[in-house]
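Methods — Computational structure assignment.
A single polypeptide chain was analysed. Its primary sequence is given first, followed by the predicted tertiary structure written as structure tokens.
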Amino acid sequence: MTGIARRIALVREEIAAHCRSCGRSPSEITLIGVSKFHPASAVREAVSAGLSDIGESYVQEWRKKADELADAPVRWHFIGHLQTNKVKYLVGRTALIHSVDSVRLIDEIARVAESRQIRQPILLELNLSGDAGKTGAREPDLPALMEAAQSQKAAVDLRGLMCMGPLGGSPDEARPVFRRLKELSGRFNMSAGDGPPVLSMGMSDDYQVAIAEGATHIRIGTAIFGSRPDREPA
């Protein structure tokens, strides 16, 4: 078993243990391996170990890896800040865009999706911690974002919400942020098709708390791929 395979197995064991402790089933959790700055060979290793959901933060890096791994059964998740001029690359090639934070971005996703006669799954990203250095819409903007997504429902499939814990914060500091995201998903009666709304929250340092607070998708980088290189691989 490779190093990445061992780490995936360990993370899955920990997910199962935390699910048991809070009365949830591990089947409710989608594990996304975040391969930012790691080479495509590391992603292939993870996929070979049974991890099909992979997250990327930069469109250019994702495009390189997606082309190199075109033969691999990868479900790509885009989790980074997205500019409208990069939407055309993602629509139809990503299983889920997590980081939608403006009406303008929703409209552009809808425009491209409609032109391709598809329906693109998205999440609305919220900045609930108030960190100035983070992207994501503010909580008061959520009703307008949901209305915009619903108005484009023929081309945009709104699945749920996404957030991050406080920058540099402890898991305990992340807990109220995750709890608030869960509350908001209920308040706005979000629906993800036949299942509950997606709640994308929790990373390597705080995913245990996120699971306890209702996460359905957790985004794990370091705990799977190891320390992140300083720059994107050539």
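Note: The first helix runs from residue 3 to 21.
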